[in-house]
Design a protein that fits this description.
With about 120 residues, the protein is an alpha+beta fold. The protein has helices spanning about 5-25, 30-60, 110-125; strands at about 70, 75-80, 85-90, 95-100, 105-110. It folds into two domains: about 5-60; about 65-125, SH3 type barrels.
Length: about 120
């Protein structure tokens, strides 16, 4: 009398087993999400960082005597000597420091160093 219910239960069990087997076998659709994540990370994180590194390398290589720069530590000065790996930076009257070329943060427009010195002189008065 209940035979018709049991056959439905067995059929449902087989359908669940088939669906589980199909889900366990990932196809191309299973690879779309990881590939999309890699592409997003490349364009949002890796590529911009590579561009910044390339620009900084060019900035360091192009440093020459007379350039006015700001270091990574925030020191403003004028380059007086340039070597292979180090440079001499004038940061005040008769005051110079040597630093690594890689510590250059920004090249400032000409005249920035003098105008900053005048501002400091006004503040001291």
């Amino acid at each position: 009398m209940l035979d018709f219910l049991i056959s439905n239960a067995v059929a449902a069990e087989e359908a669940v087993a088939v669906a589980t087997n199909e889900a366990a076998e990932p196809g191309f659709e299973g690879l779309l999400f990881p590939i999309a994540l890699i592409v997003i990370f490349y364009f949002l994180l890796i590529r911009p960082q590579q561009k910044r590194n390339k620009d900084h390398k060019r900035l360091v290589e192009d440093a020459k005597k007379g350039d006015e720069i700001v270091t990574n530590g925030g020191v403003l000065g004028k380059i007086t000597e340039v070597g292979d790996h180090f440079l001499t930076l004038e940061i005040g009257a008769n005051m110079s420091v040597q630093l690594m070329k890689s510590s250059i943060s920004t090249v400032m427009p000409k005249g920035t160093y003098k105008s900053a010195g005048k501002t400091v002189a006004k503040i001291k008065k």
